Structures are given as structure tokens and as C-alpha cells.
Amino acid sequence: MAAAATMAAAARELVLRAGTLDMEEEEGPLGGGPGLQETLQLGELDITSDEFILDEVDVHIQANLEDELVKEALKTEGIGEVPQVEDLHLHCEALDFYGLDIQESENIASLHNQITACDAVLERMEQMLGAFQSDLSSISSEIRILQEQSGAMNIRLRNRQAVRGKLGELVDGLVVPSALVTAILEAPVTEPRFLEQLQELDAKAAAVREQEARGTAACADVRGVLDRLRVKAVTKIREFILQKIYSFRKPMTNYQIPQTALLKYRFFYQFLLGNERATAKEIRDEYVETLSKIYLSYYRSYLGRLMKVQYEEVAEKDDLMGVEDTAKKDILGAEKPCARPWENTIFTLGTRGSVISPTELEAPILVPHTAQRGEQRYPFEALFRSQHYALLDNSCREYLFICEFFVVSGPAAHDLFHAVMGRTLSMTLKHLESYLADCYDAIAVFLCIHIVLRFRNIAAKRDVPALDRYWEQVLALLWPRFELILEMNVQSVRSTDPQRLGGLDTRPHYITRRYAEFSSALVSINQTIPNERTMQLLGQLQVEVENFVLRVAAEFSSRKEQLVFLINNYDMMLGVLMERAADDSKEVESFQQLLNARTQEFIEELLSPPFGGLVAFVKEAEALIERGQAERLRGEEARVTQLIRGFGSSWKSSVESLSQDVMRSFTNFRNGTSIIQGALTQLIQLYHRFHRVLSQPQLRALPARAELINIHHLMVELKKHKPNF
């Protein structure tokens, strides 16, 4: 029984310990309440004290369980054999009431009450936590509802703001302020506030039209007011612009001043174009009609007065390169003085080429009445430049004004420009065509061509394409005429008969001089803007002139005179060409080759009379030596002796006569000097070759070799005969 009592006591202690641990676990997370903070008074049952060692309890329990009386008692109560300590927990409730000590009943009751209180506290905490969880769930759903409501309110706010903005724009566009009405009705059109309010009126009219297209009913409320304001504005603008246009018609009026003033009010026409097209068309037609008449009248008058300051004597049909150079005579047979201011012939460029220089090209236009008072006269190309520079300047200004004021571009601007300037351009073309029909001044026509080419480039830089067609039409008149005049000159040279030109002279011929001046003029002009067709025509003219020079040279009886004539003409043409054309030009190279060939031939011809025997012997001897027949020179001792003595006795006089003959034959002293120097150089070379021939073994023992002149002495003596200029 004692063992059973001991085992029961141990079981109760285990149960109490388990309960205490459960209560501590529940107390920990909750933080403890008022009931849980009370301390349980377990006395000897406190198994949490340090004095109680659980391992020893297990040993005692195991020892008591092995007691025979305990085993019997357990069998009597029906619990059965519990062989292990671990199975004690499975039977704690069955053994709870066995062997309980009556003295511990109060503690057990107190423990029970405390456990019950803890359960109540825990239940209340569970209820509080459940309520709190429910409240949290409710709050979360409320937050979601509030978020949805906030999003919906935000969308409604944006929609209302958008609607407010649209309505504000609509109202602002439709409302007509009193300032606008006052300015349109009362303010002069030249005041800035009228222009500002006109722009506002145009914007409102455009807004009303747009809203009417969308079916906005509110437009009907302001349509009447806007229409009346529009009519008033159109009336005032129409009167103002027409008044400006009519002011162009006053005599001696500089139309560019009111035209520039109109540009400040270019919005007026834009307003008419957008609100009253009929009035806009009326103004445009009135402008076109007025300005076209003004330009036509101005240019017709200017052109007529300009032609009165042209040179009285101009090139005629008979002023061709191959025509005989005879002075014109009057009806009484007296020679008429030449009135041409550009030297003596229409084939000379002179200072006429300055008209296409950058400074002269855009110089101020000529004033005819000023030129008449000063008795000044000008060639046709100067008049052409002045006329077309005025046309270019006014056309560029007019085109830019049309584009800016009438708000047009591209083909529309081109058509409107020609509506204004078309009659003037047609009149100018007819006048040019009429003048060119009787024009035979090729240089003037060629200069006009290059003036047009340069003016076309200027118009392109100013971004004015409206004159492109006009420039093409002008060139279509100038190029054929230039080619015709050039072909007429070519034909005149080709058909020239040298026998009909009078007496022959070895000096440069006037036809070749004409060609040289004419060709150099065209080449120098063409170098700025090269044209292949021009070079082809000049090539044809050069061929005919070369043939003409050969035909005239053939009229001389001696070859020497022929060569002198050819050299004089080639030298003259080359000199004139080199003054204006580039050194590497085709014409310069061609005449340089011809001159060199004829000069070499003339030098040989010049040395032939005094030194012909020496030349012949040197050539024959060199040929024999080259063929290996030098032994044949032994039979030439008498001839060699005669040549040595003849050269020694006559070379000085021959050289002096040669020099005088050259200087008499050539008009260009520089060319004559060059020929003399070439002849003396060739003479020295010839005598040096003679020395080499005499040094051959066959002639080395010749006694006359002692009479040979030292080559260096000869060179010194020949230098004395070289003329200096």
C-alpha cells in the first residue's frame, strides 16, 4: 500500500507539472492578465523547485512498479501491467483518484479554480482577438471600398476638368469681348490695336465655323455679331488696300514705298482670303492690273530713252572679218571719220569686257537723261546690262512681295508673277528680237549672253525662280544670232581672194589682226563661263584664218618673203591672244607651234646665202662619217680650204647684213631679236660641227686648219652683233 501511495503521489505531481507548463505557455503569448499574475501555492507538490529531480522520480516509480504488492494492486484495479515508466502517462486519469491524500484537497480545489479562471481569461482573450480579427477584416474591406471610391472620384474630377477646359475654350472662342467690337468699329486700320483685334476676330470666326461643323448650338448666338463685325472689317480693309494700290498710279510716284508699307499689313489680305474670297480676288486683280500697267509703262519709257544714248555708229552687215578694209565714204566721196569709241574696229574688246566684271555687273543702272546732258554714249551691251539689271532687281522684289503679301508659293506664285510682269517681259523680248535682227556685233551679243548667265545665277541666289523661263527665252534669241554672226565671219574669211586685197606686204595682215583681236576677246570672255559650242565655232574660224594666211603667203615670189609674212602674222596673233587668253589655251598652243616651225625654217633660209656652202659640206661630211666612208673626205681638201678662208673673210659682214635684214623684215623687234639670236646660235653650232669634221684623220693634216677661227672667239664676236631693245 505504501508503494501504491507513493506512485499515486508521483502521478499527481506529474499531472500538476503538466498543467503548470500549459498555463505558462498560454500566459507567455498573451502577456498575462490579472488572474494569471497570481502565484500558485503548491507546497510539496511544486515540481518546479530545484529540490525536485525528475530523474530520481522515474527511478522510484520504476522500483515501486516492480514491487509485487503494487503489481497485485494494479491487476486488482484492472489497469494491467505497466512494464515501462513511459506508459504511466496513458493511465494518469485512471489513477488520479487512487491514493489521493485528503490533506491536498484544498490545494487541488484552488488549482482547479485557478485553471478555470485561466480558461475564462483565455476565452475572453480569444473572443477579443476574434473581434479584433473581424474588425481588421472589416477595415480592409472598407479601405478597398474607399480606394475604389477615390479612383472613381479622381476619374470624375479629370472628366470634369476636361469638360471644363473644353467648355472654357468653347466659351472663350465664342464670346465676343467689347474691346474687339470697339476696335473693329472705331479704330483706324493703321492702328496696332485694330490689327490685334482683327487677328482675334479671325480666330473667333474660324472657331465658330469649326463648332458649327460639329453641330454646336451655341454658335447661333454669336454668328450674327461676328458676321456684322466681319463685314465691317472687310469694308475697312478693302478701302485701305485699294487706296494704297491706287496711289501707285500717281505720276512720278515711287511705287516701292507704298508697296513696302503694304507688307506691314499683310495679315489684312490673309483675313480677306479666309473670310471674304471675293474681296480678296478683287484686290488681287486690281493689284495685278495696276502693277502690270505701271511696269509696262516704266520699261517701255526707260528702254526708249536708253536706246538714245547708244553709239550712233554700230556694226553693219558689211562689217565682217574678211571684208576689205576701206574707209566708209559719204555721198561726196569724202572719207567719214570713225565714230566708234572702242578703238578702231568692232573686233576689238578693249574695255568693253568690264561690263561683266562683278563691280560693273551690279552697278547702278544708267540714267538716260543724265547721259544725254553729259553727251555720253554706250555700246549695246552696257544698255542691255542696265535694262536687265533693272528688270532683275524689280522682278526679284516683286516676286518676293507677291509670295509674302498674297500668301502664295510654287506654281501659284509663278503664275501670279507672270500676271504682273508678263506684259513687260514680252515687250522686252520683242524689243531684243527686233534689235538683234540688224545686229552684227558678235562681241556685243556674246557679252549679252554672259550678262544673262550671270543674272540668272544672281536670281537663283536670291531664290527667285520666276525669271528662269525669261532667261531661257533671251538666250534662245542671243545664241542663234551670235552663231550666225560668227558663221558669217567664217564664210567671209573663207571666200576672201588674196588677189583682190591690193598690194602685198610682209607685215601682219589686217584680217589676221581682226581675227587675233576678235578671237582673244571671245576666248577671254568664254573663260569665265566656258561654252563648248563657242570653242567649236572659234576652231572653225581659226582654220579658215590659217588657210587664208597660207593663201596670201603663196602670193609672194620668194620663200623668204613667204616665211617673213607667216612669222609676222603668227607672232602678231600669238601676242594678242596671250594678252587675254591663258597660256595653255588651245589657240595659243596652236599658233606657238606654227610660229616655231616657221621661225626655224626662216633661220635656215636666212643662213643659206652666206653660209650655204658650209652647211652643205657639213651635212655631206657627217653623212659620210656616219656611213663609215670618211676616206672620201681626202678628195675634199680644196673645197675645205676654200670654205675655211671664205668664212674667215666674210662672216662678220654676213652676220651684220643678216641682222639688218631681220630687223627690217619683222615689225615686232622682240621677235626679230629672237630670230637673230636663234640664227647666231645655229651658226655657232654649224661652225662647231665643221670643227669636228676637220678633226677627222683624213683632214687633220690640212694646212688650212691653222686658219680656223677659235670657237670661243667666234662666240664672243657674235655676241656683239646681238641687238638689245
From TrEMBL:
GO molecular function, one term: syntaxin binding
Pfam families per the UniProt record, alphabetical: Vps52_C (PF20655), Vps52_CC (PF04129)
Residue intervals of the Vps52 coiled-coil domain: 102-272
Occurrences of domain Vps52 C-terminal (ranges): 289-603
Keywords, comma-separated and alphabetical: Golgi apparatus, Protein transport, Transport
Cellular localisation: Golgi apparatus, trans-Golgi network
Signal peptide limits: none
Gene Ontology CC annotations of this record: cytosol; GARP complex
Superkingdom field: Eukaryota
Keyword Protein transport listed: yes
Family note: Belongs to the VPS52 family.
Entry protein name: Vacuolar protein sorting-associated protein 52 homolog
Organism, scientific name: Sciurus carolinensis
